[in-house]
């Protein structure tokens, strides 16, 4: 039981960060039809920025146990700044161009932002020390789970709930869904596409930066961390269905838990297991588990 | 004869101009080295190939910084035999790119020597090319056992780094020493040649000392993995007495942190054979005392009695606000060895030596480096001490250092010559 719970908790923890990045990928693709490779790098940026903000505040006497509040604020703020800048500065030029241009541009952004990270924070790993350890551990039926990991899982669930609410119960959500379904019709009905695109891209960016900021107290930031995650986010998207938020949620859970089980049982097959599922989905249900339902 | 006023003014003026010219000349001589007979006047070109991105960015940046510091210092002292040094840098990326860049440094930039490279895949591609081009290449790392045995058994121009499994061998020796009663071991190593070779070597050596030890599981996260929560669940399931890892870069603090958060070290002891590669990231808050930690071949607190080390650590910290890692001494040593080999050749030949002549002197050379005397064996493999010990919080820093430091000599942890078979050599030990 202890082993099963350990494996399950670690899988869900991994899934919770994967979900945030994959959700950012999905929302941008769903509306703007751009496969944003840079969402993993936004995650890395959020991690570095979160460390800087929390360290700065703690050094100036901010109470350590409350670090999660400025951490979330840092992730949000960064996304709100970076998102519109990249959307207006770069993305808008490729919306009507071939997908290859879009991929190349977002790949270029990955490379540029990695260099920005190295320029600002250097190449050494950055961490917040043991700040997350102050929350201690929880014993769940014999399994020892770091409380901070549970907080991250909870935050991801809340974010997933908020996104669901935003998409289903708000005017902006209806506009997003309408645009995802039929851009021309939405535009004909008077929706300002420029504003929608800025907002949607910013939402995707915020999900990435917030994910990075949230997870970093439990690890350390390295410049290539975004690239590592984006590869798995692809698997999530394929399994869940491109453009589907529900798919991102389920896909992340499948990948996270499956990876965790594989590592505990057949570690040599860690990635093989994930990609067997990816291939199976591509063969049996190419649109993904929730591919029919857009955003 | 009495001088006229006009003649006196001319004399004094001339003397003043002459003295001024002399002083100016002296000043100039201080800034520029005196020409040495038989030595070309143009600068020595040193090519450097550091890895500045991805997982090798931490040691690569450290090595590149050290290279620049060394060049600044040597240039300030007059260069090599009066020749100033110029650096030409090409980044280490993929094997294909490294081959092209190595060729460029040799043929276009006309480099006298090329230093650098850390990935074995890149080293194995560049080594044969160095031999073909007749270009001196002094590696920082990039030379695991199997690759070297198969691809570069004998070289004239390629000078290889230490056997990469040395720290795993040292880790196993210290495991047997510090934790003689352990019965089970689980490994977590990166899924590439270095990680696999280290795990194999560690098992072979520990079995030599402790035949009853069982290796219960082995985990193989990808190089560059940044979340080990699932691996930690698997390590818990293995429930072993000791966890062995050869992580050496940004993954070290992540594993340490997540393992501590999950309470892994309450049950298991640990051996981080190469964790000192990112030692300043191992904060006391999440790194327990009593873990075996290897610093590879350079420990910044090795001794107070080696002025070279003290001076370098101070200069490095002042400049970069970080404490240096092992790759610094790989970088320092190869440059110092090159310089001394050139100077030795000059003493014999009375002219600037050819690359082949420098290579001959480099084989078997010993020079003072940051971690004591280092050298190249006759088979062109670097030979140096390794530093390991148990993590300790008793220091003025916010990160751990080591107590009960062991200086492991090449005789203990490196097979005696390149063509020797590693596992035959280990089997031949008397434990």
Task: Please explain how this structure is put together.
The complex is a heterodimer of chains A (295) and B (431). In chain A, helix 1 (2-32) packs across helix 9 (225-240). Chain A has helices at 2-32, 39-59, 68-89, 99-121, 147-169, 171-181, 183-188, 193-215, 225-240, 245-265, 270-284; strands at residues 137-140, 143-146. Chain A is built from 11 helices and 2 strands, in the order ααααββααααααα. Chain A starts with a helix and ends in an 11-residue tail after the last helix. A two-stranded antiparallel ribbon of chain A has the order 1-2. Chain A has a domain at 20-224. With 431 residues, chain B is α/β, with parallel strands linked by helices. Chain B has a 7-stranded mixed β-sheet, with helices on both faces. Chain B has 2 domains: 44-162 and 304-383, Response regulator (Rossmann fold), CATH 3.40.50.2300; 166-296 and 386-427, Response regulator (Rossmann fold). Mean pLDDT of chain B is 89; it is low at 1-31. Classes of the chains: A mainly alpha (295), B alpha/beta (431). The interface between A and B is large, with 48 and 46 residues.
Sequence-ordered SSE layout with sheet pairings:
The complex is a heterodimer of chains A (295) and B (431).
Chain A: H1 2-32, H2 39-59, H3 68-89, H4 99-121, E1 137-140, E2 143-146, H5 147-169, H6 171-181, H7 183-188, H8 193-215, H9 225-240, H10 245-265, H11 270-284
Antiparallel strand pairs in A: 1-2
Helix pairs in contact in A: 1-5, 1-8, 1-9, 1-10, 2-3, 2-4, 2-8, 2-9, 3-8, 5-6, 9-10, 9-11, 10-11
Chain B: H1 5-31, E1 44-49, H2 57-76, E2 85-89, H3 95-107, E3 113-116, H4 120-133, E4 137-139, H5 145-151, E5 158-159, H6 166-178, E6 184-188, H7 193-209, E7 214-219, H8 229-238, E8 242-245, H9 251-261, E9 269-272, E10 292-294, H10 307-320, H11 326-349, H12 355-362, E11 366-369, E12 372-376, E13 382-383, E14 386-392, E15 401-408, H13 410-413, H14 422-427
Parallel strand pairs in B: 1-2, 1-3, 3-4, 4-5, 6-7, 6-8, 8-9, 9-10
Antiparallel strand pairs in B: 10-14, 11-12, 12-13, 14-15
